[in-house]
Amino acid sequence: MNSRLPEWLKKRVSSPETVQLVDSMVRDAKLHTVCESARCPNIGECWSKKTATFMILGDICTRSCGFCAIKVGKPTHLDTDEPRRVAETAKQMRLRHVVVTSVARDELPDEGSGIFADTIRALHEQIPGIIVEVLTPDFKGKRWCIKRVVDAHPEIYNHNIETVERLSPTVRPQAKYERTLDLLRTVKKMDNTIHTKSGMMLGLGETHEEIVRTLCDLRYAGVEAVTIGQYLRPTTTQHLPVVEYVHPDRFAEYERIGEEMGFLFVASGPFVRSSYNAEKFSEKLMADRLSSVQLTVV
User: Fold this and answer.
1) In terms of Cα–Cα distance, which of 251, 266, 254, 259 is closest to 9?
2) Is the pLDDT of residue 151 over 80?
3) Looking at residue 297, what is its pLDDT?
4) Burial of 80 (0-12, 13-18, 19+ CB in 10 A)
5) Tens-place pLDDT, residues 158-192
6) In a designed cystine with 228, which of 11, 153, 215, 268 is the match (CB 3.0 to 4.6 A)?
7) Which of 52, 64, 65 is nearest to 26 (CA)?
């Protein structure tokens, strides 16, 4: 196919001064962001709003997914002071919604779940009332690792399905489609007050029917929020090719389908990513809670 980007996938970087400010804060704290490591196309927009997705557990991943730009290798260090620095930086940035994700750390006995839990607690302690959203690996399905994160009580627990079941072995060979669904079900069973979220990419060769089936699987697993975006190839030699650039009208159709299925929040568009405009979901949750309280009082 033609490798040139269509017009709807061209984006202008905004507010370079604020981008530099966020970059300086993150680097001074010796932290990583998935915005940079995954070469996210929204980095200018998000950083200009002083929002960022912190990536904990280092910047070297033990898995080699076919779509991801994060470095792959064998990590050599575990930074136990990282949770404190994430919380302090988030407080300095005056964030009200923080997204925390990580590389996969398959070599660790707890898969990195302990650092996730410590980071959640540090954020809640430093910033009362903050919404903490975590985007975790699958922890190889270990229930005790999932429980460790759940017990720290993030407001939103995100784990991405990434693609349809047929393509999953190619797109993320060290993960499993059903394991993702099981993790999301498990979170709700452990604590149904935590909101669950997942995301997928389009443009890897999936069909309309497969996309709808994946949305059904997520909804049946109790997932309340879903993000759907366009896959963009990080490099021309090391990553999976783009099969199709999906038109914005089709993204709008999947947003409508998701809403009809009963998801509380659906973000679907070419530039949508897991944590893109994540605060809009928390704003909806807060609005729904307020409405519920008002109805109860009446």
Assistant:
1) 251
2) yes
3) 40
4) exposed
5) 999 999 999 999 999 999 999 999 999 999 999 99
6) 268
7) 52
Of the candidates 262, 271, 256, 253, the residue with the CA atom closest to the CA atom of residue 225 = 262
Residue with tokens 């007050």: 193
Place of tokens 């627990």: 157
For residues 226 and 162, give the distance between their C-alpha atoms in angstroms, rounded to a whole number.
Answer: 11
Residue whose pair of structure tokens reads 């997705």 in the numeric block? 53
Tokens for 174? 């060290």
Distances in Å between the Cα of 28 and the Cα atoms of 25, 83, 85, 92, 250 are 5, 15, 10, 12, 42
**Domains in the chain: ranges and CATH:** 7-297 (3.20.20.70)
